[in-house]
Amino acid sequence: MADPVFVDANVPMYAVGAAHPLKQSCVDLLEAIARGEVAALTDAEVLQEILHRYSALCQRDRAIEVIQLFTKVVPAVLPITLADVEGALDIHRRYTSLQARDSLHVAVMVNNGVERILSADQHFDAVAEVQRFDPTLWMRLKTVP
User: Fold this and answer.
1) What is the DSSP letter of 79?
2) Alpha carbon 68 to chain centroid distance?
């Protein structure tokens, strides 16, 4: 199996959210991960992002539910270290299109040798250190070494 791919917060959020053009692709992707067809991991900041977003919408119970479901499918959660934060500063300086959280995700990926990210966020396309896979094209992950 190929090296693991980093799963961004928008994948589980689209999967459990309301009707959206990306919903079914994200559901299919997470099911493939659950079946072991795609090796995946995430980081603690993705979980915080999910918790923050649903809590901001006054859906605290939903936040907990989504994180619990997501970590059953993707139990490999990388921690955030000081080295990751320091790396994020450099990433954030070089890639002005990235939000702070995304700069941190890239730094975590770089520091852990992860080169591929599953995300609907096209701004990752400008980041030389990572290769983004759109959730609608996740099947290509199965053919990429």
Assistant:
1) P
2) 15
Q: What does the pLDDT read at residue 145? A: 46
Q: How confident is the model over 59-105, as pLDDT tens digits?
A: 999 999 999 999 999 999 999 999 999 999 999 999 999 999 999 99
Closest CA to 66 of 125, 115, 26, 123: 26
- Measured distance CA(23)–CA(16) in Å, rounded: 8
This prediction has a pTM of 0.91
Q: Which DSSP state fits 80?
A: P
Q: Which two tokens stand for residue 71?
A: 């970590």
Q: H or E stretch including 62?
A: helix 60-73
pLDDT digits (tens, 9 = 90+) for 8-39: 999 999 898 777 888 889 999 999 999 998 99
Q: How many domains does the chain have?
A: 1
The contacts of residue 65 (CB under 8 Å, 6+ apart) are none
- Fill in the amino acid letter for 7: V
CATH number where 139 lies? 3.40.50.1010
Q: What CA dihedral angle connects 141, 101, 123 and 144, to 10 degrees?
A: -10
Q: Which structural domain, as residue segments, surrounds residue 53?
A: 5-143
